[in-house]
Design brief:
Number of helices: 2
Distance between the termini: 44 Å
Order of helices and strands: HHEEEE
Oligomer: single chain
Length: 88
């Protein structure tokens, strides 16, 4: 498996956890605008960053990125974003 494919696998796992959160929890977890942490997958460490892209009256937009810290590859991490609609 290539480095990028592994990043995408770890990204999918992390994104699943972030997408499962209701919008108030997303805002609570990203109160400072972003959070960075490390995860281990198959005995390797990966950096994860979740960023609050937008907080509007109607939705929350979050981006999650993953890389392994290697340069120059990690300059362009694997990432995806999602939108969580706010309910009234």
């Amino acid at each position: 498996m290539t480095r990028r494919n592994t990043w995408n696998l770890v990204l999918a796992l992390e994104l699943e956890q972030w997408e499962a959160k209701p919008w108030p929890q997303l805002l609570h977890d990203l109160v400072d605008g972003n959070i960075a942490y490390e995860v281990t997958h198959d005995s390797k460490t990966y950096q994860v960053e979740a960023d609050l892209v937008e907080d509007t009256p109607d939705f929350v937009h979050v981006c999650v990125a993953v890389d392994d810290g290697s340069l120059p590859e990690s300059i362009s991490p694997a990432f995806k974003s999602f939108v969580r609609k706010k309910s009234n």
